[in-house]
Amino acid sequence: MGAYSYRALDEKGKQVKGILEGDSERHVRSQLRQKQLKPIEVGSSSEKHDTGAGRSLYKTRIKQSELSLIMRQLATLINSNMPLDEVLTATAQQARKPRIKTLMLQVRSRVVEGHSLAYALGDFPLVFSEMYCSMVKAGEHAGFLGRVMESLAEYTEDRQHTQQDLSGAMIYPIILVVLAVTVIGLLMTFVVPELVGMFAHSKAELPLPTRIVIVLSDFFSAYWWLMIAGLVAAGLSAQYFLKDPGRRRQWHRLLLKLPFISGMIASMDSARFASTLSILVSSGVPLLEGLRIAGQVLNNLELRAASKAVANIVQEGGSLSRALEQAKVFPPMMVHMVASGEASGELEHMLARSALNQERELKMVLGNLMQILEPVMIVVMAVIVCFIVFAILLPIIEMNNLVV
Question: Which one, out of 84, 219, 337, 359, has a CA that is 20 to 30 A from the CA of 52?
Fold first, then answer.
């Protein structure tokens, strides 16, 4: 059975839309008529294309918050010992958005056809990454799918909370920057030209600050469109430049050499790497496969290449801690905790603890940065505005002195 979207008319002639599960379009039309609805249009709601390997990859995308809710619902229902098809049906029925309902019905249809849940989730790689599929596959084989889904739900919720914290920390500085640029732009474009017009008839030489402000004001007034076009062109050029994997890796390598920024990037990606590897290993995924999958969650290409080197060293018989140490890009505390976990036989727990420590350190660094950045930006904005006011008042004061 598949999911079909429909448009129909109810008894009052009002058009309604929705999604129904059925064997065919005819079956769905029959269901609509039984509900006293007159079908207008019925079609498959799946968005797919053939990969050439016999499987269909659906293009559905959802937000992190929506994925977090789906995983929590699946974990709760599976742990309540409900049959898997009923779990997926209930999750689809609870979905408010049509695309999420379609997604869960398509997953259910694959499961009803006899495929495993991991295989069904694999049809949606833009929603359920390889990590999700590998963990679900390990849970299905080992017989503890409920525990795995619980871990995935917690992992997804933690990622959502981390993203929300990072986004929240950046809101206030962004507002300050936008406000500062707007105020200064308005002053230079509209206010300054009106005020300096009174000096046009004066033959006296204007003070240097006033001349600077007038030149900048004229430039803003005449070429504001050029500055906007330049910013857009710079953004598009950077996007085009970073499309090439080689150039993007060079840029990522440079970021890892910059003071302060390198520490934030290393902490962020290392926390993601350790957390992913921990949850994979604890779910029964082999370490080598876990390293390969965990490396894919790294955003920095230089760190991703280092994770591949770590996997190669481990495959050759080396320890994970020694491999991480040789990579020379992962935080020393993470290396020490992994070594402790290997020695005590609790690698997954130490990886999880390492990820938690990295996230705490990152939040602390961001908090300190925001505390420093906010007053600095306010002071800079105040200095610029004061300079403009001073440049305007200075010739007025000199003219008054001449009159006296």
Answer: 84
